[in-house]
Amino acid sequence: MQSQQVGLVETANEVDPYKILGVTKSASQTEIKKVYKRLAREWHPDKNKNEGAEDMFIKITKSYEILSNEEKRANYDRYGQTDDTQPYGHGHYGHGHDQFYFDESFFHFPFSNKGSQEFADSKYALHFNQYVNDVVPDSFKRPYLIKITSDWCFSCIHIEPVWKEVVLELEALGVGIGVVDVGYERRLANHLGAHRTPSILGVINGKVTFFHYAVVKEHLRQFVEDLLPQRLVEKVTDRNDLQFLNSWHEQNKPHVLLFDQVPVVPLLYKLTAFTYKDYVQFGYVDQGLSETANLLKQFNINTYAPTMLVFKESTDKPADIIQAKGMKKQIIDEFILNNKFLLVPRLVNQKLFDELCPVKQFHRRRKYCVLLITGDEESYTIGNQAFLSFASTNTKEVVRFAYVYQRLQQPLCDTLLKTKDSTPPPQVFILERRNAAGKVLYKEVAGGWNGTDKNKQGLLDELERLQKDPSILNYDAMLPELNNEFASMFLIRWIYTAYDYLTEIIDDILHNNWREMMPLLSLIFSALFILFGTVVVQAFSDSSEDGKSKPKAKDGTKAENGSPGSSSTSSRPPKKNFVEVTELTDITYTSNLVKLRPGHMNVVLVLTDASKNVLLSKFAKEVYSFTGSLTLHFSFLNVDKHSAWMETLLEFAQDAMQIDADEDDGARHKIDYTGYVLALNGHKKYLCLFRPVYTGEEGGSSEEEGPRGATGGGRKSRSGSREDNPPRRSTPRSRSTATLQIHHKLDRLGLWMERLIEGTLPRYYIPGWPGLDKITAPK
User: Fold this and answer.
1) What are the start-end ranges of the E strands in 434-527?
2) Helix or strand or coil: residue 629?
3) Where is the composition biased (Basic and acidic residues) (predicted)?
4) pLDDT tens, residue by residue, 202-236
5) What are phi and psi for residue 168, nearest 5 degrees?
6) CA distance 45 to 35
């Protein structure tokens, strides 16, 4: 027994924190911390897979825990041991491995650590619905520290003593605590992204952040502090005190100053600032600095205890003060809640309005709101100051004072000022809210508001009458929702959020937390792959298209392009300086129409032998800007050869070929199809029709045609100059005049092509394409 006891003492004495960390007894805290970080990274079990790495990591952690605490370090230097290195009992036992220490609760259950979880699991256990409905919304007011554990997690036992100590300290400061048992809440663990036990994570503003360092009290405390935004508390000295206190008007918040002797802002104060960040602006004064001497003298601060001052509209005298040696969270919360608003706050959003002027719930809990409608110009200053002076003398808890700027809250002001006998601003109204939808009862205080003694007495009389008879509020209205005057600050908040997110990404990369980074990395690589694939496909598509230089048929006619006569554009720029137009014959009919690929269309110009050269040249100019499309093909049809095919095809578009009622019923002349354009979809078997438009003007189309001429295929549009009737012999025309008329038949083709690309033209479906194997007999 004695030998066993000696062995235990020797084993315990082997835990020399100075030797394990490799530092001397005179090493400073900075040196110890630097060495510890290096060794912790080197021996972390996630990075070091050697046998004994976990044991060595525990020794390093224990050693740092001793040397980083001045009291434990002093005990070790004097007696060679601390509470954590006791060789006998009291929660530590040599178990196979050198210095593999377990908490004493381990011995309550030999095969499970449920006993060690009795401290936390029953009180802090989280469930999925509880996390989503309670923890996430509450994380916008305070951070949460959550431990992921399980029944058979032996490593969880090592961190249990530290976890208990940290929970007791941080919970008293206002930090939310949670424990997730993977065995019972696998869904919640997966939702949090925790794939191993033990894990510790923090939740703030709905965002999850993992703890990556050794489980030491100082590290966990620092982790919680790092979760908080960096700009919660402003350091205040004699140089910037006036700037800080005078910003109450711009921010529309009270300002709180905490005086203390410690150089860093206490965690309790930071947590309080985060909880009330929407209501109060916080500042911190370090009493140990020479730059704060004037502040201490000005406000007569007692340097022996922390002091908290709250300033509202007055920057010379605090509205309230509290001083205590042991500044507890409950005391601070009560102090802030009693000074949550200015004496006369400005209504800047609906949330503030709802809190200042709550909806009536019970008869005995009536709340009245005295509202001043004013402006922010200098001419209103005297009246605004008088209203503030009047509100500062109010002692009734059921009455709240507030004001709005008419320029910034125009809808609200228009609703209240719409009564016949209302006077222009500045004006005072007494409101009582009846429901959350915006219904209010109100009364306008007669005489307006200029800040005179008469105005003050009139308002005082109305408030006394209201206390005796609430029915004097004789008007009702539905108030609109208030404008959010701070909405322009969204960009700044977005920048801060993006900065915090990038910081988290960098932190994850430095700690090789690839499992948690996998969704983000997958998103980045997917975006890069799609972008790279698109560029490669586009490059190969362009190169293969440029290589196609063969004409589609031997009869193809290439009409060289002049300057395009239309300002139309297509999705792809033309890649050739000419338009390739193929004649539609019985040889090319099947490939260019009947078996045309799905999604492709053939634009066919109808002409005669006499008009061929003129119309092809004009056709090329009008459609040139659309030749970049890969789905459009261009052809021409000689109607002298295939007039029967045209008549058969257009029987299915009878509504587009209607004859005016004023034409002679008994004398229908044969239609001249010269200048018609057909857009044929061979796969879906439909056509779109362009009917020629002749304006008779050399300069182009007339304004009278409007969009009707552009439609071409519209059901009721007609050509400007019909060639259905032959020209009269009594009005002979020269050949140049006839050529000019034919040339102008395609003046609106460019606009029609744009509508064809947009898909807004009428479509005429046919049961099947007629054959093109017959040649019309010559006349």
Assistant:
1) 439-444, 475-478
2) coil
3) 545-558
4) 999 999 999 988 888 999 999 999 999 888 899 99
5) -60, -40
6) 18
- Residue 391 CB neighbour total at 10 angstroms: 19
What's the one-letter identity of residue 741?
Q
Helix (H) or strand (E) holding 370: strand 368-374
List the Cα angle 564/626/572 in 5-degree steps.
115
46-93 pLDDT, tens per residue? Answer: 778 888 888 888 888 888 888 888 778 887 887 676 544 443 333 333
Nearest CA among 758, 691, 754, 681 for reference residue 723: 691
pLDDT digits 0-9 by tens, 607-624: 998 888 888 888 888 888
Nearest C-alpha neighbor of 758 from the set 522, 571, 501:
571
pLDDT, tens only, 319-369: 999 988 878 888 999 999 999 999 999 998 888 888 888 887 665 667 889
Dihedrals φ, ψ of 178, to 5°? -150, 150
AA letter at 666: G
CA distance 272 to 283: 12
CA 39 – CA 47 distance, rounded (Å): 12
Distance CA(127)–CA(189), nearest Å, equals 10
Residue in 360, 371, 364 with CA at minimum distance from that of residue 434: 360
In 246-346, alpha helices (H): 248-251, 267-275, 293-298, 329-337
pLDDT score of 113: 46
Q: How many CB atoms lie within 10 A of CB 547?
A: 8
Strand duo 307-311 + 255-260: pairing: antiparallel
Peptide bond into 573 cis (omega under 30): no
Query: 204: which 2 tokens?
Result: 């703030």
Kindly tell me the burial class for residue 288, based on how many C-beta atoms sit within 10 Å of its own C-beta (0-12, 13-18, 19 or more): exposed
Q: Which two tokens stand for residue 652?
A: 């299915």
- For residue 20, which phi and psi values (nearest 5 degrees)? -65, -40
Please give the C-alpha separations between residue 358 and each of 362, 369, 416, 469, 509, in angstroms, as whole numbers: 11, 9, 18, 20, 48
Write down the pLDDT at residue 769: 85
Report whether the peptide linkage leading into residue 358 is cis, meaning its omega lies within 30 degrees of zero: no
Asked if 66 and 83 count as a contact pair (C-beta separation under 8 A), the reply is no
Which range among 86-90, 195-199, 266-270, 528-532 has the greatest average pLDDT?
A: 266-270
Contact predicate 276/255, CB 8 Å: no
Residue 116 pLDDT greater than 90, yes or no: no
Angle at 114 between CA 112 and CA 118, to 5 degrees: 160
- What is the amino acid identity at position 240? N
In 176-332, where do the E strands start and end?
A: 176-181, 199-204, 207-210, 233-235, 255-260, 281-286, 307-311, 320-323
pTM, 2 dp: 0.52
Selected residue with higher pLDDT from 686 and 107: 686
Q: Is 413 exposed, middle or buried (0-12, 13-18, 19+ CB in 10 A)?
A: buried
Beta bridge partners of 581: 557, 634
**229 CA to centre of own chain:** 19
The answer to whether residues 357 and 369 touch, using CB atoms and an 8 Å cutoff, is: yes
* Cα 421 from chain centroid (whole Å): 46
Tens of pLDDT along 268-290?
A: 999 999 999 989 999 999 988 89
Angle at 483 between CA 479 and CA 486, to 5 degrees: 150
Three-class secondary structure of residue 199 per DSSP: strand
Specify the pairing of strand 233-235 against strand 281-286: parallel
Q: What is the pLDDT of residue 280?
A: 93
